[in-house]
């Protein structure tokens, strides 16, 4: 099938690469579970923009999605949540840039 069960934990001690793979997968699973819960909370809150991931949390989930190809393994709600969070971050960055540009122009003309 598509899964493996370790008969004894000693296998991971003797095989460092396997231990690293398991640890990396554990982190991926934790991030995906967090995304699932956050997307459900976002949906329950009427897709409130305040419930979206931002900053480092969003960056970690986006990197994992890119690396693991979540288009296949995520739900439509999780993809919508990630898309909305990414769009919100881009909008905020555009607003920050526009503000900096306005201040620069005012300073230059000032």
Strand content: under 5%
Count every beta strand, where a strand is a DSSP E run of 2 or more residues: 0
Please tell me what the overall shape is: elongated
The computed structural class is mainly alpha
Report mean pLDDT, rounded to a whole number: 87
The string of secondary-structure elements, in order, is HHHHH
Give the helix proportion (percent range).
Answer: over 70%
Regions with pLDDT < 50 over 5+ consecutive residues?
none
Biggest β-sheet description: none
Q: What distance separates the N and C termini?
A: 70 Å
List its salient traits:
110 residues, mainly alpha, 5 helices
Outline:
This protein is mainly alpha-helical and 110 residues long. The protein has helices at 10-14, 16-44, 55-68, 70-73, 76-109.
Description of the molecule:
By secondary structure, the chain is mainly alpha-helical. Helix content is 78%, strand content 0%. It contains five helices and no strands. Helix 2 crosses helix 5 (76-109) and helix 3 (55-68) crosses helix 5.
Produce the secondary structure layout.
Layout: H1 10-14, H2 16-44, H3 55-68, H4 70-73, H5 76-109
Helix pairs in contact: 2-5, 3-5
